[in-house]
């Protein structure tokens, strides 16, 4: 087995949640989804197989995932507050630290899930807005086209009426 070269390290793929700059060649195409994790034909991955899919670069970029920053900051703040309060209440430092870690993990997980819920709700709302907006625009274009057809029909009727009046009027006769 050969040693990895610096070129190999720079060619690693980024996690799916890290946004890549869109290619200017075809902005109308949405970015393709990342390839799914390889599964055994018999079912889902085992824990050891799942752990082998983790790359060292994942530890350097996990904070870039949506909602992870707010979750981590909430967990740190809550853990520090709970641990400090428990220490002030007379618990020994190791037990207060255990409370701090436990409260931090619970708070971070709760905040992360709440943020993900908000993102999903906003995405659904946006999808509905786009759908309704498309319908409203289609209705507006249909009304516009109908108004243009009616205007054109009125103009043609007026033109035909004026031509009929011209035919009915006697013209100038010199003799």
UniProtKB/TrEMBL annotation:
InterPro entries: Cox20. Residues 135-168 form a coiled coil. Belongs to the COX20 family. Keywords: Coiled coil, Membrane, Mitochondrion, Mitochondrion inner membrane, Transmembrane, Transmembrane helix. Pfam families: Cox20. Residues 10-26 have a biased composition (Low complexity). Residues 27-38 have a biased composition (Pro residues). This is Cytochrome c oxidase assembly protein COX20, mitochondrial. It is found in: Mitochondrion inner membrane. It comes from Podospora australis. GO terms for cellular component: mitochondrial inner membrane. GO terms for biological process: mitochondrial respiratory chain complex IV assembly. Transmembrane segments: none annotated. Residues 1-45 are annotated as: Disordered. Involved in the assembly of the cytochrome c oxidase complex.
């Amino acid at each position: 087995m050969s040693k990895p070269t610096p070129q190999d390290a720079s060619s690693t793929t980024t996690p799916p949640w890290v946004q890549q700059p869109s290619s200017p060649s075809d902005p109308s195409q949405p970015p393709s989804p990342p390839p799914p994790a390889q599964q055994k034909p018999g079912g889902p991955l085992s824990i050891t197989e799942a752990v082998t899919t983790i790359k060292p670069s994942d530890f350097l970029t996990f904070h870039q995932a949506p909602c992870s920053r707010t979750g981590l900051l909430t967990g740190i703040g809550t853990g520090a507050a709970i641990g400090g309060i428990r220490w002030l209440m007379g618990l020994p430092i190791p037990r207060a630290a255990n409370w701090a870690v436990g409260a931090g993990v619970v708070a971070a997980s709760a905040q992360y899930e709440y943020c993900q819920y908000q993102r999903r709700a906003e995405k659904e709302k946006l999808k509905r807005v786009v759908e309704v907006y498309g319908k409203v625009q289609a209705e507006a274009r249909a009304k516009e086209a109908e108004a243009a057809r009616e205007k054109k029909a009125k103009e043609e009727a007026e033109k035909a009426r004026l031509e009929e009046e011209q035919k009915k009027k006697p013209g100038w006769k010199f003799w």
